Amino acid sequence: MDRANVIEHFLLSRCSRFNDSGQILQFLEQRYSYTGPQKNYLVLEPTDGSQYQEETKQQEKKDAEEGNKFLLDKNSLASATRKDNKYSSIKTKNEFKNFTRNSLRLQEKIAKKLHKLSKKNPGLLTKDVIDLKICQGILRFEDFIEMHALWNNYIKELLQNCKTVDVITAKLSSAEFVGAYFKVTHCTCPDNIGLEGIVLWESQTYILMIIPRRNNWKDNIIKQNIQIPYSAKECIGGLRMISKKKTRFTFNIEVDEDSVIDFEFLGDRMSIRSLDRANKKFKSHNVKDIQL
């Protein structure tokens, strides 16, 4: 036996096809001979490649479908992740905050431009500036009057069966004030005193109001011969973010056709979100830390 075929002989000896060593040697001699039935070379025949092309197209189509599925899964996962993120820009709350922030910045820019223009034209701020080209993007008080009308209907339905003031105050403590017409009577910021407007949003610590143009305490001066000019910020009106801390607001409710009751909203006592305030029970008792 050729020593070069020791491994082949050993492997074939474990095969049930061969009964003795002679058959294995004969098989190995035929395997490595040119005249035997087994050839030691590979014969390749030319083909047209149609089957290969079809298999290739099917594989490419399958890969494309898997790739599209992966992209869809990735996009859906990213979308779900964005929705679950509390800082996501697609959330309504965050979108509203961005809108409010951009509106306040726009008002500041326009107020600065009007202040510069008023130095060249002193009579500019004595007229309504809302029709000027630079004031086109400012929110107008007139666009939110219907919102206040809806709140009046809501509060009338809420208080329609209330007979006493104590019951009314208990109802108001858990009511929604978005749409109410508030007036600032006490505030640590002097510029906010006398402001009147419609409530657009209420958080735990702030109230967002839309105020009309040229409307504050300067309209209620007793001495008519004294004229205090309005600032550029007061002439454009728009949004105002007012802190609840050490601030008081007043509003009135028309209970009947002939009776109107005035109420005071204490910011320090109402530093609660409207959602939480609806489920909170307020007890009527005297407090000593309210400064009159």
From TrEMBL:
GO CC field: nucleus; ribonuclease MRP complex; ribonuclease P complex
Domain of life the protein comes from: Eukaryota
Record-level Gene Ontology MF annotations: ribonuclease P RNA binding
Pfam family, one: RNase_P-MRP_p29
Localization of this protein: Nucleus
GO biological process, any: rRNA processing
Record keywords, A-Z: Nucleus, tRNA processing
Family note: Belongs to the eukaryotic/archaeal RNase P protein component 1 family.
Protein name, UniProt field: Ribonuclease P protein subunit
Organism: Pichia membranifaciens NRRL Y-2026
Lineage start: Eukaryota, Fungi, Dikarya, Ascomycota, Saccharomycotina
